[in-house]
Amino acid sequence: MRIVLGVTGGIAAYKAAHVLRGLREQGHEVRVVPTDAALEFVGAPTWEALSGQPVSTTVFDGVDRVEHVRIGHEAQLVVIAPATADLLARARSGIADDLLTATLLTATCPVVAAPAMHTQMWENPATVENVAVLRSRGWTVIEPASGRLTGQDSGPGRLPEPDEIIAAALTAVQEPAGGSGHPVTPAEAAEPGPLHGTSVVVTAGGTREPLDPVRFLGNRSSGKQGAALAAAAAAAGADTTLIAANVDSQVLAALPAGVAVDTVSTTEELQAACVVHASTADVMIMAAAVADYRPAQTAEHKMMKSGDGLVLELVENPDVLRGLVEDRDAGRSRTGQLLVGFAAETGTPDRPAAVLAQEKLLRKGCDLLVFNDVSGDRAFGQDDNTVIVYRPADSVAQEVVRSTGTKADVSHDVIAAVIAERTR
User: Fold this and answer.
1) Of residues 241, 247, 193, 229, the one with CA closest to residue 403
2) C-alpha angle 379/384/386, rounded to 5°?
């Protein structure tokens, strides 16, 4: 299908790159038509590299081909993500002062707009009226998501997740809005995803073991990868729960609506929550970084310096993943449950990190294991990641997929591996 992806000047423009990638992966031909303001956020070379198509914002490029008319005529679907308040106002008024708005005037195919703006802009009577008029003309205007916005504010106005936009857009081709005026939400527009009817539980963050009321033993996990996995599972249609171990509130605020959150702190609390959720979960994805040890005793009051140093006695924490495998195999949890482990390894002088991960897969007995090399300040707290997914095959670890990109990109690939494993 020939799709025009309109990108306007909002901070959420970077997410449009994931919409573009998702549409291309499904085999669609995508022409990106940004506004000048959009190129302040993501440059033309990025759009050209990802789409394989030329990028222009003006009607004065390709005049011999009459691009400002041809692009709209040939389009079978137009998706605008993000759609700013300014774009909605110009489109409602029929203004055609750049290539995108000219394309909108010449397009006869379904048009899907995914708004992104501050809550007050979205709720302003002018925007409300503009959206109502565009819907009456047959546009599908997706309801924005609620959550953390730019700065400290929260509320409706966030751009929906890329997978939700794609699902709503492709559905609109089959069932255009038709001027009903009903606000289309991503959940209403999307066809059931491949994990529809599936219960997925994801753990995220890092457990903390208290030494005293103010100190703890912990790790550097931010919870970003686990939260991204929960979002990807939800986008695939799963009934999703995130067990969050000390995950930053901003990370949790960015989760899609509908993802349930169960907060824990210590490894024992994480284990208890996992046991409860495992009784009904079809898939458990253990992305949290679990402390292997905890203090044998926790001081009631803050420990003071003595000048003699400090010796801590540590005891082993329970092996949460192995315990879940044993419960499943013994019939104490959901039959047929898929268990996904994580291995964040640095390697040793004589044992590469990948080897340690493969050994962990076979030792733990899980169905899939996601390995990432965290040496040299990689992965923890970063927005990008590189992982390899392994599965056991004839007593060896078999590579299933290798993924590099943002943590959202990686999560998409991991969830795809989960879906493939469930259908084996």
Assistant:
1) 229
2) 65
Active site residue 219: yes
> How many C-beta neighbours within 10 Å does residue 377 have?
9
- Give the residue-averaged pLDDT of 101-119: 91
Q: Residues 140-152: pLDDT tens digits?
A: 999 888 776 766 6
- C-alpha closest to that of 334 among 286, 284, 297, 373: 284
Tell whether the model's pLDDT for residue 96 goes beyond 80: yes
Token look-up 């002062």 returns: 97
Q: Which pLDDT does position 158 carry in this prediction?
A: 86
β-pair type (216-217, 209-210) = antiparallel
- Dihedral angle computed from the Cα positions of residues 268, 270, 271 and 275, in that order, rounded to the nearest 10 degrees: 140
CB 287 within 8 A of CB 204: yes
Look at residues 290, 355, 337 and name the one whose alpha carbon lies nearest to residue 318: 290
> What CA–CA distance (Å, rounded) separates 262 from 222?
16
- The two structure tokens encoding residue 321: 């993943």
pTM value surpassing 0.90: no
User: Which residues face 286 on adjacent strands?
Assistant: 203
C-beta of residue 170 within 8 angstroms of C-beta of residue 193:
no
What's the confidence (pLDDT) of residue 66? 62
What pLDDT shows up at residue 84? 94
The answer for residues whose C-beta is within 8 angstroms of residue 43's C-beta and 6 or more apart is: none
DSSP, collapsed to helix, strand or coil, labels residue 304 as coil
As its CATH architecture, domain 2-189 has 3-Layer(aba) Sandwich (3.40)
The reply to whether 199-422 shares the fold of 2-189 is yes
Domain ranges of the chain: 2-189, 199-422
CB 200 within 8 A of CB 282: yes
Among 79-93, 166-180, 345-359, 383-397, the range of highest mean pLDDT: 79-93
Secondary-structure breakdown of the chain: helix, strand, coil percentages, each rounded to the nearest 5: 35, 25, 40
Catalytic residue among 219, 246, 372, 385: 219
What is the mean pLDDT of the segment spanning 293-313?
87
Range list of H helices, 282-364: 320-329, 353-364
What class has domain 199-422? alpha beta
